[in-house]
Amino acid sequence: xxxxxxxxxxxxxxxxxxxxxxxxxxxxxxxxxxxxxxxxxxxxxxxxxxxxxxxxxxxxxxxxxxxxxxxxxxxxxxxxxxxxxxxxxxxxxxxxxxxxxxxxxxxxxxxxxxxxxxxxxxxxxxxxxxxxxxxxxxxxxxxxxxxxxxxxxxxxxxxxxxxxxxxxxxxxxxxxxxxxxxxxxxxxxxxxxxxxxxxxxxxxxx
Length: 206
Prior knowledge:
Elements: E1 21-24, E2 29-32, H1 35-45, H2 56-68, E3 70-76, H3 96-104, E4 117-125, E5 128-136, H4 140-156, H5 158-163, E6 169-175, E7 178-184, H6 186-189, H7 192-197
Antiparallel strand pairs: 1-2, 3-4, 4-5, 5-7, 6-7
């Protein structure tokens, strides 16, 4: 259980006021919310049990986030699929007005092609903060096409132009079946967690 009055306080309370467990190695500092999670992390680090790094899609996302220089990132295989009729498939939350607009896009080329997993994160360099984003696809052709579609969405979607207020630069690259994107600006950088926990207009797919 967390205590909201203690959120973000030292030594390691998160945004919900949860303290968690911390392990320190010569290279990294690890944190989990609960003891079983920390034990599993240590076993995985030692190679005693499988980890997400053994899953090809997550391995590719990790490499992409590293190349983008993100200092914090979220990984998920719950992609932003747009469905006209809700079903039992786990999905991320979205507001009714955004859902209505996205449903209206079904059947045209405004939506991205399906992808398998994504990562969203935030980075900072000498220029300033930026949003880091990576999508893993089933093949290179889908990654190339989504590079085109995603840039078109960012440049032309009125909702995103408001959401990305303060966007300074958009760059993308495709390596194999991975699309990597960097969007500079304080506005985009501040939205990285929103992409992780809600279906927004940025990366919805057919």
